[in-house]
Amino acid sequence: MRKALIVGIDHYEHIPRLRGCVADAYSVGAMLERNANGTVNFVRPRLISGSDPSHLVTRKELKDAVRELFAPKADIALFYFAGHGYIEDTGGFLCSGESTDGDDGLSLNELMTIARASPATNKVIILDSCHGGIAGDRASLKGFAEIVTGMTILTASTADQYAMEKQGANPGGVCSQVS
């Protein structure tokens, strides 16, 4: 069994809105559903999108969906996030739609803890956000990585970089600075 959770957030209540994350999420979802020869790859990847105020992606919804993705035994559990990322001295965060300053989103430490504990054979985390490169680092222990056997992390930026939103680029390039 292959499971995928694809999240794209354009609408934020308190921080700058984005324009391409939801479209990127739909593109990634469509790409994952079928292999190039038309055979099924991921059966119905779960897609969560925050495109407007009526579709606000909350921290609770995001964390619950991540837990659900990584809970069962699976050949592959794939998580894709396109939206704002945030970093501070306690680590990195994925901003949810109701985030006010970034550090109130889903902590990358929480994401890594949930993924590490997963019985899935292969755990894939793709972060199309600012500062995604901090995923797997533990803020309190410099030089210590939390990546385990069977885990792959792909990011659009290093811990210190911003991922820029570029119109016409699909998928890719997400973030403007969260202040």
Describe the protein in words.
- GO terms for molecular function: hydrolase activity.
- It holds the Pfam family Peptidase_C14.
- With 179 residues, the protein is an alpha/beta fold.
- It has one domain (2-155): Rossmann fold, CATH 3.40.50.1460.
- Helices cover 19% and strands 27% of the residues.
- The chain has three helices and ten strands, in the order βαβαββββαββββ.
- It has helices at 21-33, 59-70, 108-116; strands at residues 2-9, 46-50, 76-82, 85-88, 91-94, 106-107, 122-128, 137-138, 141-145, 151-155.
- The strands form three sheets. Strands 2-1-3-7-10 form a five-stranded parallel sheet, sandwiched between helices.
- Strand 1 (2-9), helix 1 (21-33) and strand 2 form a beta-alpha-beta unit.
- The chain is globular.
- The termini are far apart.
- Mean pLDDT is 84; it is low at 169-179.
